[in-house]
Amino acid sequence: MQDTGKNIIIAGVGGQGILLFSNLLSKYYMKLGYELKISDVIGLGQRGGGVESHFRYSNKPVLSPFIKSGDVDYLLSFEQTETLRYLHCLKDDGIVFTSTFELSTSSVNTRLEKDMPESKTELIKRSGKKTFIIDPEENKSPDFDISKMMNIVMLAIYAEFRGYPHEEMIEIVRESVPAKFIEGNIKAYEKGVEIARAFAL
Amino acid sequence: MNGNEAVARGAFEAGVKVASGFPGTPSTEVMDYTKYRYPDIYCEWSTNEKVGLEVAIGASFAGYRSFAVMKTVGLHVAADALGGAAGSQINGGLVLVVGDDVGRIAGDDYNDVRHYGNMFNIPVLEPSDSQEAKDLMIKAFEISEEYSTPVILKITSVICKTTSGVSIDESATYKVKIKQKYKVSFSKVIMTTMMMNAKGSEHPKLTKCFNDFPAHMRRLAEDCNNFDINKLELKGKKIGVITAGTPYFYTTEVLPDASILKVGMVMPLPEKLIRELAAHVEKLYVIEDGHDIMEKNIKDLGIAVIGKELFPKFPEMMRFTPDIIEEKLVPDAPKRTLMDGIPFRLPVSCAGCSHLFISQILRNHKIKAAADVTCGLIGCFPHMESYSLQKCMGSSIALAHGYNVATDHKENFVAMIGDGGFWATGINGLMNLIFNDSQSTTIIVDNSCLAMTGGQHIASSEFGFNYKPENKLEIAKVCEAIGVKDIVTVDAYEFENLEKAILNAVNSNTNSVVIVQKPCVTKFKLPKSDIYQIDQDLCTQCRKCINIGCLAIESKKGKDGKVEIVINEDLCVGCGLCSTACKFDAINS
Question: Predicted ipTM?
Fold first, then answer.
């Protein structure tokens, strides 16, 4: 069946390359001729603030720039506190791809509020959604800095899951990132494919 | 294209000659795209919004299309200039591109630029997507020239940061448009004086000063019923909605059967179209982001609409979402709620930011201080508590001066200000305190750019659109020229020197300025030094280091479930501030 379009939320914190991720993905869908609306919500603070990107592609004109809660097909998150923030937006059969990376919040650090008593990873696992959880610690590589390139790793995992051609994705990465980062990005992409294949997607 | 890109494209296609303004989230990038994509257009970041708008007004009088870009908070600064331009003779089209931070996405106040439309009786256009952002930018110049009025293009944090398709004529070339209809252009004060005293006179010396601006606006209010940017879509009879901006798309998605009047010009409103819709439907709603401005203007026409009573504004709703419309207007819509207890993120300074050093010294020595609008205002938040007073941009110097004169200079209340805020309007506060014989201390954070909005250049930067080394303004020299008695310049990372400089300044009984230098760590990507680590055996978890407010210091559960204070090695830049805070020598590089 032809893909008529999907609603995706991409979430994380500032500095994780979320906007680059949605930019790369948009190039792929534009090549396929889809209509797109991508809305980025960036909080105050240069670094460490929450970032969410509502990414919609469709074979019909996309109306709302924001996805209504309950209409999200995929949640791609680079930080697990942020993953929890958007779980309720997923469709019943929506799917979660998340990193176990966690940037503790200033409010918890300074004891303005208590952290959640339970493990966030466990909460995600028990959300009742299909989840793919990626631990950056376990996937560290000397070839690239996974703390900075989780976006590219995630792009590869998503592409594998959707059955998109990796050569085309890598080409888009190559066209889009500064020359000195291309090699590292490709290594990160390859790592993502490896992780995805281990999930047997 | 995102909305900011689309507005810049619109400026290019409209043949704009001059772009000016002042950075402000979410609309800052309008200028960047204009500058780098369309080099034919003269661009400048001005010292503040008022100056920026005045530059655009001057260019417009010369006959050239010009725009000034700013956020709504910035238009408060420029409001006097807008009041002067409103109702005056306009030659080249004059457009204000103003960013409203609906939903306080970037942390702004609850502002709504449309109030200026009401106050000054000038048109406001509001796009719903990037295509319209481009089209309405062009339309704004046409309206400005046709009806002799400045026009506000209201863009929002959603429009600015949403990417959607825009059709572009790639072969379009840049053509400057020139219109020199009026020989003079005076503020309304002069024109109203003419109206009152010279009515009926045909003498050209009198008539050239007179501009019948109320008549222009009446004509626009009539004509806008036929503008194609105002679209009436008559469908079902149950629900009618008057809407503008991105809420138009939330509405069409949630209520596909509703009859909708989508206005591209939110001020003045197309009265005939509103009455036509009102007559067609059983219930009429207004769905508008920001304040209830269209709603009030429609009610003023004597038309019953439902708005705020069903959709309470602040603080219940910061901006419309499809969810809010569905909850109220779609019976039996499923309700989905956020998981409880997810910690929130207060803004945190970047690791290595010079502001952290200053905040730390003020806190350590219990020095009372006012912060400005700068990255340093993060020091006001409850996880840092370094400042007790903070208001608008450029205000801190005068705030501290006011405090000091009221308390007979017994408390030495200090002002901290960023270099951007200093040049924008803070310098006025400094001049004021000198000639009023005040003894206040001012800390000026010289990080070589306007850091908070992403590092745009300012008068003391060593880069910029129109930068020449010989034109760079030196903060210290200007302070000296103004008459500051005691001026010290220190490197932020030399902690002991900085501490000494601040204490000396505070304790001296003359006016003083401490200039704290360190380029913005994020803009200039400073090289990292050796990163620091916390020795868990020595750490007592006193949390002194956490209270610095550095993004790199975290309180985390380790693998064994025990809470540890740790330094995030990916974020640490090795500035060493945390090691000065530790009494137990647990933090070392």
Answer: 0.94
Distance CA B589, CA B529 (A): 9
Tokens of B539: 């750490």
User: Between A88, A102, A116, which is nearest B336 by CB?
Assistant: A88
What band does A47 get if pLDDT is binned at 50, 70 and 90?
Answer: low
Q: Which CATH class is domain B1-226?
A: alpha beta
- Of chain B, the percentage scoring pLDDT greater than 90 comes to 85
- For residue A28, CA distances in Å to A25, A165, B201, B247, B346 come to 5, 10, 67, 28, 35
For residue B113, the model assigns a pLDDT of 95
The C-alpha atoms of residue B59 and residue B57 are separated, in whole angstroms, by 5
CB A120 within 8 A of CB A80: yes
Q: Which domains does chain A have, with CATH numbers?
A: 5-198 (3.40.920.10)
Contact state of A36 with B165 under an 8 Å Cβ cutoff = yes
Domain positions in chain B: 1-226, 227-329, 354-517, 533-588
- Kindly tell me if the per-residue pLDDT of B198 is higher than 70: no
Which positions in chain B touch A48 (Cβ < 8 Å)? 345, 347-348, 350, 551, 571
Mutate to test the interface with A, among B71, B160, B346, B380 (most CBs of A within 10 A): B346
Pick from B478, B376, B359: which is nearest to B421 by CA?
B376
Alpha carbon distance, N-terminus to C-terminus of chain B? 45
Span A109-162, pLDDT tens digits: 888 999 999 999 999 999 999 999 999 999 999 999 998 999 999 999 999 999
CATH class label, B227-329: alpha beta
Q: What is the 3-state secondary structure (H, E, C) of B6-50?
A: HHHHHHHHCCCCEEEECCCCCCCHHHHHHHHHCCCCEECCCCCHH
- Residues B530 and B544: their CA atoms lie apart, in Å, by 21
β pairing state of B66-71 and B441-446: unpaired
* B570 alpha carbon, distance to own chain's centre: 31
How close, in Å, is residue B182 to chain A by CA atoms?
43
CATH code for the domain defined by B533-588: 3.30.70
Shortest alpha-carbon distance between residue B11 and chain A (Å)? 22
The fold adopted by the segment(s) B354-517 is Rossmann fold (3.40.50)
Domains B1-226 and B533-588 fall in the same CATH topology = no
Query: What residues of chain A, 3 to 62, have a C-beta less than 8 Å from chain B?
Result: 13, 26, 35-50, 62
